Amino acid sequence: MIPGDVPARPFALSDAAMRILPLIAALALPLAGCATVPTPPQGLSDTSWRFVSFTGTDDAQNMIVTDGRPYALTFHGDGRVTGQLDCNRLTGSWNEGALGGKTVSLYLSPMAMTRMACPPGSFDIEIAGMLPDVASYKMAKGDLRLALKMDQGTLAFEPLEN
């Protein structure tokens, strides 16, 4: 350094930039939070389905609804899932993601469910117990197929007429 030279600052902001910097930070902070918000569900969003059958890896596990009892799920656009399983109501959350092809990964939380004693032959407890084990879904010919983890079986649904 030559005598009389002013030492160079590696990085310096003008006074005007220093005054506006807090404003820029205040405006950018809410936008930074937007990046962490999960994207809303897509394919199942705002759809309702009536349970038709369960096909398990063991024929003894198979279930088919033949008596007209109400078994239904509704996937709400805000990530909630609600439904009726015979005489009980349930609620939980859901989210989906891509797997490839026509199969989409699906997460269903453990469900909160009322504890009414349904008549004999009800599948309410069985279906509610399977829902958190769903790994993916596929829509085929207008119907919904929920595949359980580890190839344990498939829950079949048809569109629910409103």
CATH topology of the domain at 47-159: Lipocalin
Strand content: 35-45%
- What would CATH call the class of the domain at 47-159? Mainly Beta
Helix-strand category? alpha+beta
Order of helices and strands: HEEEEEEEHEEE
Gyration radius, to the nearest Å? Answer: 26 Å
How would the global form be characterised? elongated
> How would you state the average pLDDT, rounded?
81
- What's the architecture of the domain at 47-159 in CATH terms? Beta Barrel
Helical element count?
2
The CA-CA distance between the termini, in Å, is: 83 Å
Main β-sheet, in a few words? 8 strands, antiparallel, barrel
- Strands ordered across the widest β-sheet: 1-3-4-5-6-8-9-10
Tally of DSSP β-strands: 10
Helix content: 10-25%
Low-confidence stretches: 31-41
Descriptive report:
With 162 residues, the chain is an alpha+beta fold. It has a domain of 113 residues: Lipocalin, CATH 2.40.128.270. The chain is 17% helix and 40% strand. The chain has two helices and ten strands; from the N terminus they run αβββββββαβββ. The chain has an eight-stranded antiparallel beta barrel. β9 and β10 form a beta hairpin. The longest helix is centred in the first third of the chain and has 20 residues. The termini are far apart.
